[in-house]
Amino acid sequence: MAGALSFVGCTKAKEVKPNIIVILADDMGYGDVSAYGAKTIHTPNIDRLGNEGIKFMNGYATSATSTPSRYALMTGMYPWKNKDAKILPGDAPLIIQEEQYTLPKMMQAAGYTTGAIGKWHLGMGKGDINWNETVKPGAKEIGFDYSCLIAATNDRVPTVFVENGNVVGLEKDDPIEVSYKENFEGEPTALTHPELLKMQWSHGHNNSIVNGIPRIGFMKGGEKARWVDEDMADYFVGKVKNFIQQNKENPFFLYYGLHQPHVPRAPHQRFAGATGLGPRGDAIAEADWCVGEVLHQLEELGLLENTLVIFSSDNGPVLDDGYKDQAVELLGDHTPAGPLRGGKYSLFDAGTHVPFFVYWKGRITPATSEAMVCQMDLLASLSELVGQPLQGEFDSENILSALLGKSNEGRKSLVHEASGKLAIRMGDWAMIPPYGGPGRNLTGNELGNMTEFGLYNLKEDIGQKKNLSSQYPEKLEEIKEYFFRKTDGYYSPNIKEITLK
Question: What domains lie within the chain, and their CATH numbers?
Fold first, then answer.
């Protein structure tokens, strides 16, 4: 196990194990970051990570939705191997087994203090959660010494912060009740009390109202514990700064899950009008500010030269994801997916092809890399960096040389998924099996549900405009054979029947 020494030429023991921060945006597209050429939006702090670090042109999540991609990041395993790794309600049990080896457990074994702050969406507890007691298992049981989280997404109940398993600000005489089946008697919803709304819903968000915003699911009680959406960014930035300050003397690993630009988009008032793109654009500006605050804190404490910062997004972009916030109407010339096709929920490339930067001041030479890298590979790659051997077998691959800009060789292939359907990128080629079904969903995003095999050369056709399946039958057969072998036993049997005919 080589450790950081062989890559950066460190000589002091403390320098062998840098602090590591993983920042994961929520629904941020490849074209939402100006470092990738966006002219309609500016993200100077996020850009800094790419312009002064390694900017990956082929950086990937494993999945086109939140929970599965986060599962892969934490476990180093393909999420489609776990039937529970799908978009979770706010009261779902933890989908990572307590005995399972994880990225934070590996970092703990390497001597790191570990923290998770922000969006979670991996489940908590064992089912039928009592939010008025310490909720476990949770982040602690899978390797985090400290955590301050939202259980799922900001559009789902419970709309409270959970710190080290306990709801923040909860009063004993006002207990929380949560249900995803039926409303509590007398509690207003978007359907019964639309006059209480400050944000209107477009689809799927018409249950309990919190802070004037309708949510998914029903909630009663916990009035003083409920968050104010506009203050969430400042709240979590404060928690991040406290964690860094408290652990500045020893190596730490921090997972920071941004909640932007996921719906409901309600950035702080000081960001209103920052982009001209409405709340979605302004939420991206707020996310960029959050990144800037982290970098500023590291600079102030003299930690920037000894901190590896990794930035990415959990999946591709979406505009109308359930609220009427003018994301579509104010889009103008902005293209959230950049030159890519598809977006969140899609098997087309923009579902999983996301911003991906690795920054380490003074240790990484700024460069643009064509290497294919994936968030799932952080487990194996960081284990090499910190000199901590892995325990078990994983889908995670050691691509540390690529992450540090020492090599342009990354992954050779990546199976990715959207709503349980699988496709593959293999070298410059992308192949989508013929699942059939609707072409788009309520968000308007193309789903990649094709009636024939899709084969695209992404190097020559990054927008996947030309299906080459009939033009290159031998290449298609080669990729099909590899895909079936790689995924056998994990995808729907009826798809195998379709694709093997």
Answer: 17-169+227-411 (3.40.720.10), 177-216 (no CATH), 414-500 (3.30.1120.10)
Rounded to whole angstroms, the Cα distance separating 283 from 262 reads 8
Of the candidates 184, 247, 240, the one whose C-alpha atom is nearest the C-alpha of residue 23 is 240
Cβ(255)–Cβ(24) below 8 Å: yes
What are the distances in angstroms from CA 463 to CA 36, 167, 353, 449?
15, 44, 12, 16
Alpha carbon 280 to chain centroid distance?
Answer: 17
CB 147 within 8 A of CB 116: yes
Q: Please state, in angstroms and rounded to a whole number, the distance separating the CA atoms of residues 366 and 374.
A: 19
Give me the pLDDT at residue 179, please: 98
Compute φ and ψ for 391, nearest 5 degrees: -120, 105
Strands 356-359 and 252-257: unpaired
Beta bridge mates, 309: 21, 359
Helix or strand holding residue 286 (H, E): helix 278-300
- Closest by CA to 28, choosing from 47, 13, 14, is 47
Report helix, strand or coil for 308: strand
Q: For residues 413 and 382, is the Cβ–Cβ distance under 8 A?
A: no
| 205: its two tokens | 């968000």
pLDDT at 21 over 80: yes
Give CA torsion, residues 83, 87, 92, 93, to 10 deg. Answer: 40
Residue 181: band (very low, low, confident or very high) from pLDDT cuts 50, 70, 90: very high
Alpha-carbon distance 490 to 501, whole Å? 19
Burial class from Cβ neighbours inside 10 Å (0-12, 13-18, 19+) for residue 187 reads middle
Residue type, 311: F
Residue 409 has, within 13 A of its CA and on its CB side, a CA count of 4
Q: What SS3 class is residue 271?
A: helix
Give the neighbor-by-neighbor strand order of the sheet with 19-25. 166-167, 162-163, 146-150, 113-119, 252-257, 19-25, 307-313, 356-359, 54-60, 367-374
Of 151, 152, 110, residue with least CA distance to 18: 110
- The angle at the Cα of 446, spanning 421 to 427, to the nearest 5 degrees, equals 60
- How do residues 145-164 score in pLDDT, each as one tens digit? 999 999 999 999 999 999 99
pTM of the model: 0.96
Residues in Cβ contact with 112 at an 8 Å cutoff, skipping those fewer than 6 apart: 17, 20, 251, 252, 253, 386
DSSP letter for each residue of 99-142 = TS--HHHHHHHTT-EEEEEEE--S--SSSS--TTS---SSTGGG
**3 state SS for 56-104:** EEEEECCECCHHHHHHHHHHCCCHHHCCCCCCCCCCCCCCCCCCCCCHH
User: Helix, strand or coil for residue 290?
Assistant: helix
